[in-house]
Every structure is written in C-alpha cells, then in structure tokens.
Amino acid sequence: MLFRSSYLMTSTPITESDVAQRARDDRLSVREKIGYGLGDAGGTVITCLIMNFLTFFYTDIYGLKTTDLALLFVAVKVVGAIADLVMGQITDRYSFASGRYRPYLLWLAVPFGVSVFFVFTTPAWGYDAKLIWAYSTYILMTIMTAGVGIPYISLISGLTSDPHERLSANGYAEQDMTQLWHSVLAILRQIARHPALQAGRLRAIGLAGQGEGVWLSDEQGEPVGPGILWSDTRSHELMSDLLRRPGFDRRYFADTGTHLQPCNTSLQLYWLKQYQPARLAAARYLFFAKDWIRFRLTGVAALELTDASSSLLNQQSGSWSSVVMNEMGLDELLPLFPPLLAPDAPAGTLSDAVAALTGLPAATPVAAGALDVCSAALGCGAVNDGDIYTILGTTCCTGIVCHGRQTVNEGTRYVTHTEAGS
After folding, report:
1. Sign (positive/negative) of CA torsion 238, 244, 246, 248?
2. CA–CA distance, 61 with 392 (Å, rounded to integer)
3. I need a labelling partner for 249 at 20 to 30 A (CA). Which of 32, 103, 192, 395 fits?
4. What is the pLDDT of residues 104-140, one digit of tens each?
C-alpha cells in the first residue's frame, strides 16, 4: 500500500490544455515532412540503383564471374544483417548534445557517398585484385548504408511520438492525380505525331497500370484528394488489429487470394472509412490508376477484373469478396464501385475533348486494360499453365501461370490472368 500511494503522488495535475499542447507539439509541420521525405528519397535513389543496375555492372562492365558475384552477394547480405543490428544497438545506447540520431547523418553522409562512388569504379587491375576491391567496396558501402539508414529510420521517433504523424511522414505514398493526367496528355500528344499514327494506323488504345491503391473522383472525373499508391503503409496499425481477429487472415486469403497487406486496396479503403470518411463521402467513383485514366479518356466509368482481383474480389466466384464487404464493413462503399469489365472488353471510345487536346482520332476504341504484372505476363508470352516469368522493376516478383491455386509458399498471392481461366 505504501508503494501504491507513492506512485499516485503528484504536485501538478495534468489539465486538458496540457494534453492539447502536447498534441500540438507532436504535430509535424509541412516543412518537416518534406524534409524527411527528401532524405528518404535520396536513400531510395541509391537503393534502386543497386537493385536495378549493380548485377549488370558487376558482370558486364566490371567483369566478375557469376559464381564469384553470387558469393559476394551472400557475404554482403550477412555483413548487412550484422551491421544493422550493431548500428541499432549503438543508436539505442548513445546520445549526443546534438541529438541521438542526427550526428550519424552528419558524420557519415559524405563517407556513404564516397563508398557508393567506389562501388561503381573499375580499376585496371588483375582479376583477383578486382575481386578483392569489389568485396571491400561493397562491404564498405553496406556498412555505411547501415550507418546512415538505421539512424534515419529511427529519426522519425525523435520528431514526434504521435503514430499518425509518423505515418504521415514516412507511411504515406500519394500521387497528384491532376499532374498525372497532364503527363498522360503530354505523352499522347507526342505519340500522335508518330508517322504510323499520322498515316491513320491507330486501331485501338489499351492500358496497363500499377495495381492496388485508391483513386477517388467525382462524377466528372475530377480528383477527390491525391491518389493513394500501392506503396502506402498508413493502414499498418489497422492491419494488425484485423490480424488479431481469430482466423481473419485465413478467410481473407481464401476469398481474395492474397494475405492482408498495407498495400491492399481493401485495407486502404478500410483506413479511409476510419479516418477520412468525408473524403469517401465526397467521391462518386473508386478507381485503380489505369481505370481513372481510362475514365478521363472516354467518360465511361468502369473497374477491371485483374486489378479488382488483387484484394477486392472473391477469385472463385468473380463477385465482390464477402470477407472484405461484410467483415471489414466496406459494403456501404459499393455505390462507389463502377461496373466491372474483362481486360479485353471495350470500355468506351476516345472523347472529342481528349482528341482535341492530344491530336489522336476521336472515337478510337479503348479497351479496359489490365494490372501491370498481368500485362507483363501477356506481353512476354507467359500464358500457358506452368509458364514462369520474372519482373525486375520497382516491384520485383516472379509469377507462375496456373489454373487453380497451387501454393508455392506462405507468401504466395494470386491475381487473375488476362487469359480466361488462369
């Protein structure tokens, strides 16, 4: 009892104004969000450079054998895992007058840049010396990456203790829909000047686009807020809540063919319903990226099968998932869903207004189109049962064409192919 009473003692009561002030202090300014995002973007540039170019550089330019390259990558992954753990311990244990995380960014930014430069240099040495150089520079860059990456990731916790503010700084991934539309128009104007199109050989327009995400518009196609991208992770906490429901992920997977992930359109809609219901109320249509572009091209609102199959459809029946609609409570959003079309279905014609803006012929037929990974499968000829294809891009994935579900591992997810029955 003595210990309990000692914990209850306080000289200054906490008032509502104190709580309100703490909330204001935790709120990040636009400048802070932009600054944090720019730093994150810089790191992403290096990551994409390594993912998309380093293998080619080491084999075709630097001259490493593929077996040596494979061993190098394994060694670097091991070093990277250890470096991340060590750097995490260091940042947790030590603090400085200028902060807990900021000093590492100041001290290691230049060495990190130099290490990246060294990785992409090709000394005129013998093979064994070059192999040692490759190991040394790649391992150095990996250590430097941990040295700046771990503190940078942790920095957001020092900026604010509000989880929603943290997500808004590094969990939101959005795109300006109006800017995207203007970019599409500019590209179409360039295409319209191609000799083949000048000769009247345009037969139809098809579309492929990034999957998942939420793109809301009004009746005329004007955006209702920015487009939410597949890389957005703001729904992570809500996902954790859903996963605590007994058997929910199993039922969700059985219905939709995917495990619950923050990128899922269904989960992003669930987040919007919880935190931005006014935005949903102001919208007339829900689209995926390519579907909204098609609506602007034709004036005909429609969703498309392959995109919708990523997290909204029951893949067995082709109808909207009962788990998504009933258990997640999204059935009230069904009025936002325009009609569902097959990938090769006619989805309207190019409007007179867009024809005038682009120089393309009015009334050109427009097909519904398909999800990017499904379009890639069709484009590279992966259309038969058992065909395997790999995409190396912003999202790296390997796809297997199958009739029915054939689980490869626990991370397998399924989307509907452009070819019926796959």
Report:
1. positive
2. 19
3. 395
4. 988 998 999 999 999 999 999 999 999 999 999 999 9
